[in-house]
Amino acid sequence: MAPPRDANWIDGLRGVASFMVVCGHLCTSFVPWLHQPALNKKTAPHLFQLPFFRLVVGGRTAVALFFLITGYVNSIGPIGRSRSGNVDGAFNGIARSSLARSGRLILPTMIATAISWFMAQTNAYHMTKHVDATWVRQGWHRQEPTLWKALTSLVHAQISTWTTGWDEYDGTQWTLHLFLEGAMLVYTTMLATALVRPKARMVIFGVLYLYFWNVGITQSVGSIKGLNIVVGMIVAELHHHFKDSATSTLPTPVPALLIIMGMFMGGFPQDSFGNARWSDMMAKTMRAMTGRDTDIRRFWDHLGASFILLGVFFSRNARHVLTSPVFNFLGRVSFPVYLLHNTFIKTVLTWMIYLPSAMNPPKNEKGERMDLQRGSPAHMAIAILLFYYILYRSAALWVQYVDPLCAKATNAAVNWALGDAPTNSSGPPPHRNGTADKHVLPA
């Protein structure tokens, strides 16, 4: 069993982001109209279409937070060693971490894909094909007719996740190859700046930020990955600059204001910006700063998540909340929650919501079969609560049993590659701030 990880605010923030992703996908499945700020220009918005409240569908902002955290966690060790003059230690740490990163990310993902593949081949997704929730129905995968086709489709899915970015058995894994690329971007930058002064490194970060801002104007990958990774590294530099005084550096209201501004920006709607005055103004503002064909949603996601991270970094109260046992638990299980939630939505949740309709399939006047209908609001609420319990309970078991196996396999491969003697540890030691030197996903 893996040793317990120390409570820290970055774990709590990661847990919040993971929870937001699940909420966002549930809303996309059953109430996709919440992605609009209002149904039309003449209709009053629903409560959860308003700023701040609409963060329940803020899965895109949560993804930006994951990239920010990846940049922060993976750079904080090398930056600390570089600042202390331990350049050899920085290089050694970068070399070991860059080798271990792939295993720590790819092995759990392969297991999650194999689980989804097994569900498909046992026809567990059969009901998914007939539900009235479009997003869930799009996740359906057929049961392959032969064992050979099933095995080849599994191999193809495992490879394409890291090449094309698409996993046919779990579409939510499209971000994972970007997280791996983001981690390597961190290590490359740390390698290039290990010998420079902190001020020079901040200048380099600034240049990288401007570069990725311009890349993001024409390619969304720049705003999804590059901008957030760079800001995460900037916050890691600030961590070593301010040390324990970070939470007393700014006047008390300022961090809270940063968080509030971040929550507002992170709530920029995914669809139909012009249906509300506030989102229309935000769209016009970002268009002026980018371009007509830019995916401005990703820029607002980035800015919102960055402001939230900075606000939490400088806030003693926010850090205190995020280090509570509840948030620390959410952080520990965040990666398996991300890996498993889509499979559980297409199986456990779908079964609970649509079983009554499946027992008596609806038909139209011509006798043709119609989509299965969801249950009553009370039925839905109970099913979703049970879904969350099953998901987080399964994620806790994953952390207890699966993660240590993946860590041991990765450590064994790294030790073999480096010629080191095997260790009994199931994971690398924590940084001095208590954050484990491992991928922080979703990832």
Automatic annotation (TrEMBL):
Gene Ontology terms for molecular function: acyltransferase activity, transferring groups other than amino-acyl groups
This protein's UniProt keywords: Membrane, Transmembrane, Transmembrane helix
Record region (Disordered): 421-443
Compositional bias of kind Basic and acidic residues: 434-443
Ranges annotated as spanning the membrane: 12-32, 52-73, 105-125, 174-196, 208-236, 256-278, 299-315, 335-355, 376-392
InterPro entries for this protein: Acyl_transf_3_dom, Acyltransferase_3
Keyword Membrane: yes
Domain Acyltransferase positions: 8-355
The keyword GTP-binding is annotated on this UniProt entry: no
Domain of life according to the entry: Eukaryota
Pfam assignment, any one: Acyl_transf_3
The name this protein goes by in its record: Acyltransferase 3 domain-containing protein
Organism whose genome encodes this protein: Aaosphaeria arxii CBS 175.79
